[in-house]
Amino acid sequence: MLFARLWERLTDRLRQNRRLQGLILVLSIIGPGLVTANADNDAGGIATYATVGAQFGYDMLWGLLLVTISLIVVQEMSARMGAVTGRGLADLIREEFGVKWAFVAMLTLLVANVAVTASEFAGMAAALEIFGISRYLTIPVMALVIWWAVTAGSYRALEKVFLALALTFLTYIVSGFMTHPDWGVVLRHLAVPTFRLDPQFMLLFVAMVGTTITPWMQFYLQASVVDKGLSAKDVGYERLDVAVGSLWSDLVSFFIIVSTAGTLFVHHVRVETAADAARALEPFAGPYAAALFAMGLFGASVLAAAVLPLSTAYAMSEAFGFERSVNRSLREAPVFFSLFTAIVAIGALLPLIPGLSLIRVMLFAQYLNGFLLPVILIFMLKLINNRQLMGKYVNGPVYNLIVWVTVLFIIALTVLLLAGSLFPGLLT
Known about the structure:
It is a single chain. By secondary structure, the chain is mainly α. 79% of the residues lie in helices and 0% in strands. The longest helix has 33 residues, at 287-319. The protein is globular. Mean pLDDT is 78; it is low at 18-29.
């Protein structure tokens, strides 16, 4: 009786406190942007950022700063479309551009995401092998854990797990400080652009863009906003969610580059994988830096290994009109869960194949993401500027300019790389 009275008084006070109500409302809405942006710092992304720092030092930091601005804008567009239309990106592409374009988009997304999912399981295995645990134990166990967590849970419960995993990225910030970089040099490279007409530099730049703003992120974020039941009235809160998630994600990317540039680049140590970067940090930053790097790799890989298959299952189910939601049962959404299961299974099996070059799979996936990104962004620009679809929520001129500059920059780099491959002496 006493407990009931106390609880009643507490709830009355909560209802009367408008500020607290606003905070509770914000906390109930945020999530999709944070999860999506953090899942993007996966094993392939960590390997890419570590390679950028180890191979070119701080030279690409200015590019990461500009890409962060583009990331915020693109993610906000995805969240806004989902909240206003109540429909996923794949669904809108099919309706506005036809089944053929939807099929092409889904096929390329499937190929890229299976490759990236394989790299996530490879990342988990590589992280735990540093601590002496065999990949033949790690991969099957984690595949079963991820499958069970998604198929047995609801979206809200799953989102809390994803947000908890995002905390593992703190390890990269700590390891970055432990390398004791020259912050004056770091800030100078953030402000002053450095660009080289070097095929390897440009290819890594495309990979950096492709791993920061990936095609799958747009499909997953928009589907997550729809699945969470957000609407046009929630657009302002979702913008905050997207901005915080993007800034946090790229802050982690920044420290990965800083930690490898301040140690491996200075000592001319080359790395092939993110696990190599963790091991290589040890002589220069101590055993704890390497261990923290490895722990972050494991957490990032687990998060992305769940989100990537989900994004593909969402997109393909939307594109072809099948029921899709983690809030549904296996019987209610059989195609959705079958796709998720198949991608997890294939992604887990590939790293167990003897002799397979996992680093090539990982980097190829990032390059492919970079090359495909302009196509997805053009679809998004067409959709979000459609007044019949978006009403007053269409893009403003600044947003359109930022996205078009991103598209044209990637296309220009791709053309230069193609010209360099056809005429080897052109870029030297």
